[in-house]
Structures are given as structure tokens and as C-alpha cells.
Design goal:
By secondary structure, this protein is mainly alpha-helical. It contains 16 helices and four strands. Helix 3 packs across helix 4, helix 5 runs antiparallel to helix 6 and helix 6 crosses helix 10. The longest helix is centred in the first third of the chain and has 34 residues.
Length: about 425
């Protein structure tokens, strides 16, 4: 057995076992604390709502464990099991050039992967989400979304893959640098174009009609120095009962988006506080920082791939007999998550740091009390557990656990009040 084969299997097994262990901890911890609402939330969340959140979390976690096992088995089937090798032989048999064969193999592999994972998507949407009262999606919408996503992958993905593979073919040893430059340019363009081009294919975005709320929000935007293309309400309730808010876009094409479920459930002052948090991400340049982090990681990854693509053991160790640029790229995309899993806590910690900073900013621009009440409503209505396992949360959660976040906001609110009276 190839040395790299052993390394890959060990890394896959280690990441799978750690994830299953963390998931089991989450199930036990949430279940143990199911019977009592944490003291900090006792006046705002009743026991029935707390138990629903616990049951929802446990159900999703248990289902996620099955997905992990299934995904790991599929990865082994694609690599050591010879799945990619067979697909490569099929595309080579058509007598196409390496560029056409590469694009064909990669797109067909992605489509097959999506189809193999489709039963889990269906179960999550129409069983788990339905059971807990969140699903609003009909089978027709589900199928239509799936077809649109597939079409977008082909229309956008095929040209990008063709460009990347062409650069790999003609640019010599530094192809990875040129591919990175193209990829970052594409990322920025898509980030700019998404709100106006992609998102409307799936949801309807209507200008905010509540004039009182609009004036309140505009005053906050002016105060924070934020200019946008508009304030929109998205028909999120068409697919889910979950609520959220975000701003999207880049440069002058920025948009503020509220889910209609959020607008219906929060008071105007609470919506203002939530928006102040989102504006905190903008004001503190979190989007730019995350983009720079992504750029650095992708550059390092492509540089590594530039070296791996020349190594026979990289292909042989993953069940592929013939070297090619497209196979190197496909293999790297598939196995990278296995070897980068243990970076998750670092990335999650950085994300939580940004959330704390955005909360701090929101407290200075709006009411900390309103931010707390808004977050508690969102926790309650989205059935977010108030008692996640600390270690599981440290690995996976991009946002601070509810008790920690509320405590942090309360502390900043008291500091602001003390500063105002001194």
C-alpha cells in the first residue's frame, strides 16, 4: 500500500472519529440540559420552547452524524474505490482533448455527487425541518431550485474550469499563481454581482415599504456612514420559517436584506439593533479581512497543488493511474477538507471574534437592550439551543453560544452606561 494512501486513510478516519465524538458530546450535553431553561433566559424563553430547541438540535446532530459517515464512504469510493478512475476512463474514451475531458469529468463528477447526496437534502428539508415546523418549501420549489443550481454550476462553472485548466496547461511552473489571480478576480466579481444577478433567481426582493421603519434605518445608515443600493425584504418564508438579516454586495452595489420572517417578528427598534450589528461587520472591515484570509489560504492551497500535481504518489495513493491537470485539481478539491479539518477551531474562533466586535459596535450605535431582546427572539424562533456543548461549539460554531454572547452584550451595555454617567 502506498504511503500516501495510509496517510489519507488515517487523516480521514481521524477527522471522522473526532467529528462523531464531538457530535455525540453535543447530543449528550444538549439532552442533559433539556429539562431546565438557563437562568439568563428564564424570563424570556419558556420550557416548551427550550425543549423544542434541544430536540431540534439533537435531531440535526444525529442526522449530521449519518451524513458524515456516508460522505466519508463516498470519498473512499471515489478515490481508493476507483470511482474517479472509471469516470476518467469514460471521458478519455470519447477522444476529446485534455481540456474538454477535464471540464467534462469535473462537472459530471460534481453532478453525480449532488445526486448521491440528494436523499439527505430531501430528508433534512421534508422530514426534520417539517417535523419542527420550519419547512415552507414545496416539492415543486425544491426541484426548481435544484435545476437552477445545476444550470448555474454548468453555465458559470464550465467556463471557469476551462480557464483554470487552460492556464495550468500553458503557464508553466507558476500556473498556480495565475489561476489564483483569476480565481480572486472571479470571486470579487461574483461578490459584486450576486445580489443583482444570482439571488433574484431564487428569491423575490422587495423594497422595504414600512416608511417609519425605513426612516429609522436610513438614520442609522447615515449615522454609520453606510451607503447602499437599497433596503430590501426577501421572501424567506417561501422556503423556511427561519429568520435572518444580512448585507450583501461590494462597492456601490451593497444591499441590506431582511427576511420577511424577521420583519414580521421583531419590533422596529429590535430590527435597528440587528442592522447595527450587521453594519458593524462593514464598519470594522470584517468582509475585507475574511476575503484576505480566503485569498491567503487559497494561494497556499494552489501553491501546494502546483507541487502535488507533479508527484506520482499523489495520484497512485488516491486510486488514479494516469496523471493530468484536471485530475490533480479534482483530487485536491475532494481531499483538502480531510487535511484541513483541524483548522476549523481557528477559523471558527476568528469568526466569533468578529461577531463579538460587531456586537460591541451595535451597542454604541443602538440599544444594547434591544439587541439582546432581538437575539433572544431569533434564538427562540429559530430553535437555536441555549446550551451547546462548549467543545463542539468551539470546533463548529461561527457565532458565540447564546449565553456567552448575551453576557458579553450585557457587559458592554453596562460599560457604556457607566461611561455615560461618569
Amino acid at each position: 500500500m502506498e504511503t500516501f494512501t495510509i496517510l489519507f486513510v488515517v487523516a480521514l478516519a481521524a477527522s471522522l472519529l473526532v467529528q462523531l465524538w464531538l457530535a455525540r458530546r453535543q447530543q449528550v450535553y444538549v439532552g442533559t440540559h433539556r429539562k431546565q431553561v438557563p437562568d439568563a433566559f428564564s424570563e424570556r424563553v419558556d420550557l416548551e420552547e427550550h425543549r423544542k430547541a434541544a430536540d431540534y438540535t439533537v435531531a440535526k446532530t444525529r442526522f449530521g452524524m449519518l451524513q458524515l459517515i456516508y460522505a466519508s464512504a463516498l470519498l473512499l469510493a471515489w478515490t481508493l474505490g476507483g470511482g474517479l478512475e472509471l469516470l476518467d476512463q469514460l471521458w478519455r474514451s470519447f477522444g476529446l482533448g485534455p481540456l474538454s475531458s477535464g471540464v467534462g469529468l469535473m462537472l459530471s463528477a460534481m453532478i453525480i455527487m449532488g445526486l448521491l447526496e440528494l436523499p439527505f437534502d430531501v430528508y433534512h428539508t421534508f422530514v426534520i425541518e417539517e417535523r419542527f415546523g420550519f419547512n415552507r418549501m414545496t416539492p415543486a420549489i425544491f426541484v426548481t431550485d435544484l435545476l437552477k443550481q445545476t444550470l448555474l454550476m454548468v453555465v458559470i462553472g464550465a467556463p471557469m474550469l476551462a480557464i483554470a485548466l487552460w492556464i495550468m496547461e500553458v503557464s508553466g511552473g507558476l500556473w498556480w499563481l495565475y489561476v489564483w489571480l483569476v480565481w480572486m478576480g472571479f470571486t470579487i466579481v461574483m461578490f459584486w454581482a450576486y445580489p443583482a444577478v444570482i439571488a433574484p433567481l431564487f428569491n423575490k426582493f422587495s423594497p422595504l415599504e414600512n416608511e417609519t421603519l425605513k426612516k429609522r434605518i436610513q438614520a442609522l445608515l447615515d449615522k454609520c456612514g453606510f451607503r447602499s443600493k437599497g433596503i430590501f425584504v426577501m421572501d424567506g418564508s417561501k422556503r423556511s420559517g427561519h429568520g435572518n438579516a444580512y448585507f450583501t454586495g461590494f462597492g456601490r452595489n451593497k444591499r441590506i436584506v431582511f427576511f420577511d420572517t424577521l420583519v414580521d417578528s421583531l419590533e422596529p427598534e429590535e430590527i435597528e439593533a440587528v442592522l447595527a450589528h450587521e453594519l458593524g461587520h462593514f464598519k470594522l472591515k470584517h468582509v475585507q479581512k475574511r476575503l484576505l484570509s480566503t485569498a491567503a489560504l487559497s494561494l497556499a492551497g494552489l501553491a501546494l497543488l502546483g507541487w502535488l500535481a507533479k508527484q506520482d504518489w499523489f495520484y497512485n495513493g488516491l486510486g488514479v493511474s494516469m496523471q493530468s491537470n484536471y485530475m490533480a485539481l479534482m483530487l485536491f478539491m475532494m481531499i483538502a477538507p480531510v487535511f484541513t479539518f483541524f483548522l476549523h477551531p481557528l477559523l471558527a474562533r476568528l469568526s466569533r471574534k468578529h461577531e463579538f466586535e460587531a456586537d460591541d459596535y451595535a451597542v454604541t450605535q443602538s440599544s444594547g437592550d434591544d439587541l439582546v431582546t432581538a437575539l433572544v427572539k431569533l434564538y427562540r424562533e429559530n430553535a437555536t439551543t441555549l446550551t451547546p456543548d462548549p467543545l463542539y461549539s468551539a470546533f463548529h460554531d461561527s457565532h458565540p453560544p447564546a449565553p456567552v454572547r448575551i453576557s458579553h452584550i450585557s457587559g458592554r451595555r453596562q460599560e457604556a452606561s457607566a461611561g455615560a454617567t461618569s
